[in-house]
Amino acid sequence: MTIKVHPFGDYAHRQPFAYDPIRRACMPLVTVTDAFDAADIILLAHTKDLERHAETVVSRLGAHQRVVLLSEEPLWDCVWAKDPITRAQVFDAEAGPLPYVYLNHVTSDIYDFERIPYFLLTDYAYPTRYGCWFAENARLSQRDWMERFAGARWDLAFVAEYRNEPRFDAAYPEAGFYGLGRWRTRLALACSGERLLRMGSGWNELPRRQTLPDWHLEKYLDLRGRCAVLSAVENTYHRSYITEKIFDGLAIGAMPLYVAGADHRIHDLLPQGAFVNLDGLTPEAAAEQMAGYTADAQALSAYCEAQARMAALFNTPSFLCAEYDRLAQALMRNLSALI
After folding, report:
1. Which tens digits make up the pLDDT trace of 60-96?
2. Dist. CA 123–CA 20, nearest whole Å
3. What residue segments make up the domains of the chain, in order of their start?
4. Residue stretches of the chain with pLDDT short of 70
5. What is the pLDDT of residue 47?
6. Helix 125-137 to helix 297-314 angle, to the nearest 10 degrees?
7. Partners of 276 in beta bridges
8. What is the pTM (predicted TM-score) of this model?
9. Helix (H, G, I), strand (E, B) or coil at 276
10. How does DSSP classify residue 167?
11. What are the C-alpha distances in Å from 173 to residues 78, 82, 107?
12. Contact between 254 and 225 (Cβ < 8 Å)
């Protein structure tokens, strides 16, 4: 059985089948078609597309077709969706009711990774680069890292968009799902010192990362060895939502800041102490904790272990292949149940 999907809307470039590695991994179980009428499933990626294009979808939708809102971005779900935690929903369009299925981190198991989080599967560059970078880092000793931290240009760095509007505090505690965009902005504002770096949209006039030819490589080259501590706090909290941020912190040779409850999946990847966990703290209390922070011997030991784990993870091709297989099966399972 092959399922044909048609990505539709302004955000069609931001869903799993928009990325060549994932699209290849899913063939022939799921294929992408450019023809609306030929699809079994019409895929939307953002609630904004549901609001903007519902009339068009209702008017064109065939009796055999289903609509799926397949969201990869918890920030969009948490901040813009009216109900991001219910799987089967109906949108009331002027042309009539539009039933759809909402598949995201909360309502599906699509993003419940085994070893490698979803975001790193969207581009082969992530595992390839991390394999090289962590192999180099794993050769360094605790003393090496202590000296590197001491010699860094910045004691503490925040590289993220400035978001201080109340909407970024949206929370769904029953689903363990809430926004961190405003929390991490307030943390950056609460920290002080001459060796503090704040950069990103809203903090300065540098171009947005989406406009750069290779923002990920530029980030590595700009920050490698220059930060003792780097914030890797996500824009949204969900136990399985892990982006490149904490991996980048380790790759550039900084101690990452993170927010992770006891059931967060980052604990399956990294040893305790390999990052500074700010879970449960207010931004002000977190800033106070970070004032004058220096990694102790226990933290340095965990940090070395983390580098070794990441070197092994990203230099074992079978792990990557297995993760693509798992994702393809999860997508197939969730979509095939609808047709």
Report:
1. 999 999 999 999 999 999 999 999 999 999 999 999 9
2. 8
3. 3-108, 118-318
4. 205-212
5. 97
6. 140
7. 257
8. 0.95
9. strand
10. G
11. 11, 15, 14
12. no
Residue pair 137/212 in contact (Cβ under 8 Å)? The answer is no
Give the number of C-alpha atoms closer than 13 A to the C-alpha of residue 337, restricted to the C-beta side. 11
Q: Provide the residue type at 280 as one letter.
A: G
pLDDT at position 207: 59
pLDDT for 134? 98
- Phi first, then psi, for residue 206 (nearest 5°) are -65, 150
Q: Is the Cα torsion angle 28, 48, 75, 218 positive or negative in sign?
A: positive
Encode pLDDT of 213-268 as tens digits. Answer: 788 999 999 999 999 999 999 999 999 999 999 999 999 999 999 999 999 999 99
Q: What Å distances lie between residue 184 and 133, 144, 193, 297, CA to CA?
A: 27, 29, 17, 27
Give the length of the chain.
339
Rounded Cα distance, 19 and 15, in Å:
8
DSSP 3-state of 212? coil
CATH class belonging to 118-318: alpha beta
